[in-house]
Design brief:
The complex is a heterodimer. By secondary structure, chain A is an alpha/beta fold. Helices cover 18% and strands 41% of the residues of chain A. About 3% of the residues of chain A have low confidence. Classes of the chains: A alpha/beta, B alpha/beta. Chains A and B meet through α4, α5 and α7 of A and α2, β7, α3 and β8 of B.
Amino acid sequence: MSTNAAPALPSTRDENWRYAPLRGIERLQWTPPDALTAEAIESARAVLGDLAPATGTRWTFIDGHFAAALSNGPAPQIGTRAGTGAGTDAAADASDSGADLAFARLNRRHAGAPVTLHIPADTTLDLEVACVALSVGHPAFVIEVGRGAKLQLVERHLGAANALSNLGLQLRLAPGARVEHSRLLQPAAGARHFETLQLRLDAGAELHLVQLTTGGAATRSTALVELAGADATLRWHAAMLGAGQQAHDAYVRVTHDAPGARTEQAYRGIAADRSRLAFNGHMRVTSRARGANSDQTLRSLLAGPAAEANARPQLEIDTDDVRASHGATVGKLDADMLFYLLSRGIAPDAAESLLKWAFVSDVLAKLPDAALRARFEAAIAPLLPGAEAARSLA
Amino acid sequence: MLEIKDLHASVGGRKVLDGINLSVPAGEVHAIMGPNGSGKSTLSYVLAGRPGYEVTGGSVQFRGVDLLALAPEERAQAGVFLGFQYPVEIPGVNNVYLLKAALNAARKHRGLPEVDAFEFLQLVRAKMKLMQMDEAFLSRGVNEGFSGGEKKRNEILQMLVLEPALALLDETDSGLDIDALKVVANGVNTLRAPDRSIVLVTHYQRLLDHIRPDRVHVLARGRILRSGGPELALELEARGYDWLLAEAAA
């Protein structure tokens, strides 16, 4: 095979891709635009709407190109992959999980040089990244958080109707680093978003990630997390809301590979109308991870007669000294709760919205501050009519 | 206020109410007593419109309106309040939001604007004080982690905020210690008014020591077997229900 050949794309026959929205991907045009036009900047400005006042650095990317006009703070460095130390591409590509990195390879092929960011030891950075997809984009980031450094990273993925985006994000936390990572995946109508996150935590590092997925036609999020250092801690809270004919699929593989590694994972999915949601939480604990702890609660709500929801916990444990708990439920709105709200005079559609709101609220409650929470809530408010007032009081 | 005529209802195909006749005039407090399984809770649920409780005959007029034709939320908006025997926990929906949404739904029905945020909090605080509830309850999920007694106080708090025309309190006294019972009874008594009716469903006389009813009805086998004044409750306390059931069977 020539090195210029297009990377093979996965299919639903591949392990971990069973519920992925892959139909028709072989016909998609993956080549991004060469450069940024003034017209694209104006379109992106409209998509972004009123920008909240930035308290830190904000970067906007349009179809993977940095848009200085829509950014503030120091501009990003466009680096090379070599020498960053964050990539484990070669090893991962060679492993049997090759299909999991198919979109990462596609990203590398089209993205050009990634944005590289190094946060020096014991410093703090507040960064917001908005990736606007207008046609086709392959945003690429390699981020290293230095020893004892703190990063608050807000990531938003949005765009124009029918756009295509394929994110590649590598994030490495040095010993004692701490990251609050808040992610909002909100592609526009008809748009598709694919992404591959490769995350590595060294000793004593902590990553708190909150991810909210809504909108678009289809999303597939692949996250491969290595808890490589002793006592590394991961908190992963994800919510997905599907409506219409949307399909949202997430695969999160966490490898506990050092003593005392800890994961807390919660997923809440609401499938309305004819939407399809899938979440696969794959927990691996190697023989090196003595005293590891993994706790998973995956819950789905079926809120449409033709909706589908799958939540799958997957445990793979190679040590005896481990605490692992997992639970997965799929249910409908609780009839007793619904009647209680009706009996207080609340209209049926508002009562249903309120219960859905409550269902995802424990994920949103993990966002690091109230202002961010309000922004994330605004993203789902249109899906939950009648529950708007609950936001300001939450 | 409330006129129930020959009401029949079934739950899951099983006949539970077998021709209830009951009239509750405005301004009165009526107690409905009866043994377990007599249909007391079913009557409350039927009046509130709970799905699964099928009315198979009869009529219910509430302030001259056909209550059974209204959806559950319309009954509440029109001024019917059900205090649940087992209030459900709703994590993630906080108490203050529920109170405000419920109050605004009732106000909208009456053509009033939404309640002012400041006035609302003043109102709720005053009622909480009366119910001896900590304000921290407001920001908690509805009934989430509440003890049995706290849940019942919360039901009465909601009732005091909503000021319904007709309150149906389904075994609000069960699970309360004597101090909590006094607080709950005091809350109910403050709501007594000439334009309001209260129906207490209870097993025990002790609640009626604190809330003096105008009328007492005995519900058994899906029918009202006897009605009387407050003295009937005392007689039931002394003699039980068996003599009434025997008389009815004779």
